[in-house]
Amino acid sequence: MTQETTALGHSTVVRVSTDDRSQSGDRVHSAARTAADSVPVVRTGPTGITAVTPLVMLTSSGRTAFYGAPSPATVRDLIDEMEGGTVPTADADAVVDHNPETASLPLPEHGPLSVGRRDVLGPCGWVAPLEPADWSFVSSEQTADAAAAVGLLGRGRGDAAADEPVAETWETASTTDGDPVVVCNANDASDLPTGDDTLLSGAPMAVLDGIAAVAEHVDAGDAVIYVSESQTDLQADLREAIDAVGDSLPVVPQLVAGPNEFRAGEPTAALEALEGADRIEPRLQPPSPAKRGLYGRPTVIHTPRTFAHVQRAIAEPDSVDADAADPGTRIIAVTGDVVASSTVELGSSASLSAVREAVEMDGSFKMACVGGVLGGVTRSLDMAPTAQSLRAAGLGTDGVVELFDTGRCAVETVGKRARFASMENSGRCVPGREGTKQLAELLRDIYDGSFESDKIRELSRVMRQSSNCQTGAHAPRPVTTAIDEFEPEFRAHTNGRCPAGTCTEKL
């Protein structure tokens, strides 16, 4: 049959939601297209829920049947039934009745897709990601005033306004002398935070629309999307998306690839990479990028998550609670000792513990690391997923929750993260360069019988207060929070005993 490119243009349609790099998705999509005669088959982007990928959704007149990870033979049978005029529901994982005109994936009542909300993630898996016809652009008619008015905060490690009101950054950039520029920082060498990749793969038009809206708001004539040079497939998709929007947006960004290094994802280090610097390291601040950024120009740097939230706030301003301390939602990657990872979206009134319902763990829950590779360790997820609640609990806000089972050793887990920080810091400042090494050494000393808790905490305090880079400032967080939660486990190691039974040698 003829290749269909739009998912929203049909009342009856079969969607195959998958990652472009998925061989199983290729087989399922091929089987569906081969079997289909009159029913349109459209390949959509990922939903963020790995366990049900590829996901086949069969829709007709406001009813959708969901089939997670079906075999090609099963897909052919499903298509045959659809060709007969009925939506097959007998063995479906879920069946949902919804508005036939919905542009957002309808939520089942049960299963990982039912966890949280799908506001910003709504288009992911439901629309054709590279088809402008499936998207209603707002930036051609409106700037980001609505997002500024609700007090939206920046999201993610790569955002220069992380957990701060984006409106303040925009005001600075627009009133500083020079020609403003907007940067979408999507370069994160860590494979933990999947929210940005899910949006860029599943709803790139939303991110592009948000970038254009911010550019119009600050009167910037150009913009850049900055990605890792290792993500060649994503680069190809983004080039296609950028080409597809054509003149639909007032500002269309150029795509630039940077080093596949953890340090290169820090906002000001991203500017160094974009300028072609031989040494990638964060800049001293002040001045902030909003005052002096890319090639000295006033620069707004946000993550794809932030730009997608901006777009959502403009398109549906009533959906964002302007009275909330952290308006909007938080997109969270759920990974660790799980059968399959998930990307979910939680509102500010939800409990972070809801993320456990989106995955199946390998064993019994012991602890979580919240906030990325240098996040905080906790036994409890009974807190709001807001920036304020997470910071109050000593946790990170980068949009990652790693769930660990009882087979994990707290000392080994944070020791590896300290060693990671000692290797991945930029080396520019003494607290980051030497402090991370000292921290890793103090943790190794535990295996030799020396646990100097006070020394670790004092070193951590100095690093947090005086490091120039995020790596140096955040490296102590996994260690100090793990000591708070599991100090007896640390002391047991000084006696040569690992309560988890996993440590056999010094890290």
UniProtKB/TrEMBL annotation:
Record-linked InterPro entries: Nuo51_FMN-bd, Nuo51_FMN-bd_sf, Nuop51_4Fe4S-bd, Nuop51_4Fe4S-bd_sf
Question: Which keywords describe this protein according to UniProt?
Answer: 4Fe-4S, Iron, Iron-sulfur, Metal-binding
Where is region (Disordered) located? Answer: 1-35
Per the record, where are the segments of Basic and acidic residues compositional bias?
A: 17-29
Q: Which residues form a coiled coil?
A: none
Can you give the residue ranges of the NADH-ubiquinone oxidoreductase 51kDa subunit iron-sulphur binding domain? 411-456
Does the keyword Hydrolase feature in the UniProt annotation? no
TM regions (residue ranges): none
Family from the record: Belongs to the complex I 51 kDa subunit family.
UniProt-recorded name of the protein:
NADH dehydrogenase FAD-containing subunit
Which organism's genome codes for this protein? Haloarcula argentinensis
> What taxonomic lineage is listed for the species of origin?
Archaea, Methanobacteriati, Methanobacteriota, Stenosarchaea group, Halobacteria
